[in-house]
Design brief:
Layout: H1 15-21, H2 28-40, E1 45-49, H3 55-62, E2 66-71, H4 74-83, E3 88-91, E4 103-108, H5 119-132, E5 133-144, E6 160-166, E7 169-180, E8 185-193, E9 201-208, H6 212-221, E10 224-230, E11 255-262
Parallel strand pairs: 1-2, 1-4, 2-3, 4-5
Antiparallel strand pairs: 5-11, 6-7, 7-8, 8-9, 10-11
Helix pairs in contact: 2-3
Keywords: Transferase
Pfam family, one: Methyltransf_25
Protein name: Methyltransferase domain-containing protein
């Protein structure tokens, strides 16, 4: 018998399936952040925007960090709270949230920043970060690199099929990516089916494609100083993340990693 499935957004509404689809047993994403915080002088309070299942928060709290996670999915937030009681989790929109406190570090991983599709949404998110960071606090983000798609169709070639088994049931996804040049978006269509499924579940999403110099411009206008902008290594690069790894600034890879510091206001 299939487990209960919620299908408004197939993966984010089914957190256990999400972790099965995207495992991180070595905590590469969380370790990546801890290493960058150590390198660039961050503190111990963290706001994780787009916290998902709370998997990274579980690691960080074990390392002595004070963590608040924010996500737009109620089911993700509920799952995170149950699996990581040592952190606080809230439902909120990354483009318009107000938590009434400041943090030493804000993280935004797995391309969550790219759900800000318009210029106004990007400005709104960075303004929220500015209002929630301590002076000199760090913004650490990990996302797809818009520059990678200049003449590169590696990720746009055909339909990719994948099957993940959850509670004994095989869930098959077929995914196609394409670029909406006018809107500067990477669009995705993903169709799910599984045994006993009445009809395939067809879901669509998109990410803003940002170029490195464009991202620098947004950050500068929002009052941030870019400390590091690199393509590899990272938690999702072919050369896996290792502590103290040298940072490549070629910016030709699929991923883009950012460390920026909020510039203290001059009195």
């Amino acid at each position: 018998m299939s487990p209960e499935i919620h299908s408004s957004n197939f993966l984010t509404d089914n957190p256990a399936l999400y972790e099965q689809q995207f495992p991180d047993p070595e905590h590469l994403a969380a370790r990546f952040v801890v290493d960058l915080v150590g390198r660039f002088g961050g503190g111990k309070s963290v706001l994780d925007v787009g916290c998902g299942t709370g998997r990274d928060a579980r690691y960080w709290t074990g390392q002595g960090f004070d963590v608040v996670g924010l996500d737009s999915s109620e089911r993700m937030v509920e799952h995170a709270g149950n699996s990581c009681p040592g952190a606080e989790f809230v439902v909120g929109d990354m483009r318009d949230f107000a938590l009434g406190r400041r943090f030493d570090v804000i993280t935004c991983l797995d391309s969550a920043l790219l759900y800000c599709h318009t210029n106004a949404e990007l400005h709104g998110f960075l303004a929220r970060c500015r209002d929630h960071l301590e002076p000199g606090g760090l913004l650490i983000a990990e996302m797809r690199n818009g520059a990678f798609f200049l003449g590169n169709i590696e990720l746009l070639d055909g339909v990719r099929e994948r099957t993940v088994v959850w509670e004994g049931v095989p869930y098959r996804s077929r995914t196609r990516l394409w670029i909406d040049h006018a809107a500067q978006l990477l669009r995705r269509r993903r169709v799910w089916d599984w045994p006993g499924c009445a009809e395939p579940l067809d879901q669509r999403s998109a990410w803003r494609l940002l170029f490195p110099l464009e991202l620098r411009s947004y950050l500068d206008s929002a009052g941030f100083e870019v400390l590091a902008l690199f393509d590899e290594p990272g938690p999702r690069t072919d050369a896996p993340w290792e502590p103290d790894a040298a940072l490549s600034d070629r910016l030709s890879g699929d991923r883009l990693h950012l460390v920026a510091r909020l510039v203290p206001e001059q009195s």
